[in-house]
Design goal:
Order of helices and strands: EEEEEEEEEEEEEEEE
Largest sheet: 6 strands, mixed
Radius of gyration: 28 Å
Helix content: under 10%
Length: about 190
C-alpha cells in the first residue's frame, strides 16, 4: 500500500520545518507553511479543507488591512448560472438569484431592487401587479403603530420637519385589532 511521503521541506533555525510539501497514503498532496515555533499557519490540501491563518490575505494588493482584501473585480457565487454577488468597476455591486439580477448598487450609491438603473437612493420596481413593499411591525397593544416617516432637514442640518403614515392599533384583541391609517405632519419636531 501507499504511505505518507515527504516530497520537499525547508528547515529554519533549530531544525524547525518552515515549509512542507507532502502527500498522504491516498496520494493527496498538501502544502504547509509554518511559523518559527512549527505551528502550521497556512495549509493547502488537494483533497480536503485548506486554510490561511497567518494574517491578512490580499488579492490584487500586497498590503491588505483586512482578513480578506480584494482590489479589482470580485464575484462570489455558486459557480454556475445561479446565485452570485458581483462587485466591479462597471456595475459597482449586483446580487443575482437563479442567474437574474435582483439588486444593484450603482456608481452614485443608488440601490435598485427589480431595476438595473435605479433613479433614487432606493428605487423599487415590480413589473407585475401586487405589493411593491411590505413592512411588518410586532406592535400588538392599543395605540401601538407601524409607520413610514419622511424627513427633511433644516439649513443647520437638524431633523425637523416631516410627514408620517401610520397603521395604528385601536384594540389589543387579535380578532378586533381594527387598525386605522393615519397621515401625520410634523410641526416643531412633534407629530
Amino acid at each position: 500500500g501507499s504511505t505518507n511521503q515527504d516530497f520537499f521541506h525547508v528547515e529554519g533555525t533549530g531544525g524547525v520545518r518552515m515549509v512542507e510539501i507532502t502527500s498522504d497514503s491516498a496520494g493527496n498532496a498538501s502544502l504547509q507553511v509554518k511559523n518559527t515555533s512549527g505551528s502550521t499557519k497556512s495549509f493547502i490540501n488537494s483533497a480536503g479543507n485548506s486554510y490561511l491563518n497567518g494574517g491578512n490575505v490580499g488579492i490584487g494588493t500586497d498590503s491588505p488591512s483586512e482578513k480578506l482584501q480584494v482590489h479589482g473585480n470580485l464575484q462570489i457565487g455558486d459557480g454556475g448560472a445561479g446565485s452570485s454577488m458581483n462587485f466591479n468597476t462597471t456595475d459597482r455591486g449586483t446580487i443575482k438569484v437563479n442567474g437574474s439580477e435582483k439588486i444593484r448598487i450603482d456608481s452614485s450609491g443608488n440601490v435598485g431592487i427589480g431595476t438595473t438603473s435605479p433613479g433614487a437612493k432606493l428605487h423599487v420596481y415590480n413589473s407585475g401587479s401586487g405589493n411593491i413593499a411590505s413592512f411588518t411591525s410586532g406592535a400588538t397593544s392599543v395605540n401601538n403603530y407601524a409607520g413610514i416617516t419622511l424627513h427633511t432637514q433644516t439649513n443647520s442640518g437638524d431633523d425637523w420637519y416631516g410627514s408620517e403614515i401610520r397603521s395604528i392599533n385601536t384594540d389589543s384583541t387579535p380578532l378586533s385589532l381594527n387598525p386605522r391609517l393615519g397621515f401625520l405632519t410634523q410641526d416643531n419636531n412633534t407629530y
